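My hope is that you will study the protein record below before we discuss the fold together.
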Amino acid sequence: MRQWLIYWDVNPEIFKLGPFSIRWYGLLFALGFIIGFQIMSYIFRKEKRNEDDLNDLLWYMILGTVIGARLGHCLFYNPSYYLSNPLEILQVWKGGLASHGAAIGILTAIYLFTKKYKEYSFFWLMDRLVITVALGGSFIRLGNLFNSEIIGVPTGSDWGFVFTHVDSLPRHPAQLYESIAYLIVFIFLFSYYKKKEGSFKEGLLFGYFLILVFTFRFFVEFVKENQTYFEEGMILNMGQILSVPLIIAGIYLLTRKNSKSIKINRRNS
């Protein structure tokens, strides 16, 4: 049965030149934003929205994602340490980003964006942005795979990934499970958007995204190693606890009364 083992010994760095290095995680993280921007450009052109607003929206998304993900990691998974060493919260390059924190950061950023650009509906934007967020999540989990981090628990048999930078145990490739799942969610959301040509109840795709992504996240946590010490002995870990309200929010969005999409025609591109 040893033929079912994959020995994962990939260098997380693509190349290094002195103190400067390019890592797979950073490349995939950036690629998610680049492709996401192209998808949103396609959507804005198709619906005759002002593409110039995308430049501002991109920065709101980048800042919301990075700040939210970093604060989420620090405050959800190791609050005592980071509150005692607050300057280390700024040291993003040392690693430590949380997807639930990113979700909160993105929601906050889009809310602030709609306060500035009042002609945009919060749910209109979220319905379209979650298409790109699902794809970005798939890329980020691939980055985690290249980093040999967020690993799965041992499989207890002779199949699985052996993360040689970690130990010699066959483990569930939890990062790969999530990456594939989020890619499937992306394909579903984008296909639904194209089939309906952008005409559907506001909040619908956002609701589907929350339910699909965080339901999968809830269950995949059962085959993942805990991210921090205080999760040991808990019935549900922090990732599962944080997923529940997001799933409930998604169900609410799908079951609430219909609301029509707001048409934006401030300027044609």
In short: The chain is about 60% helix and 5% strand. Residues 262-269 have pLDDT under 50 and may be disordered.
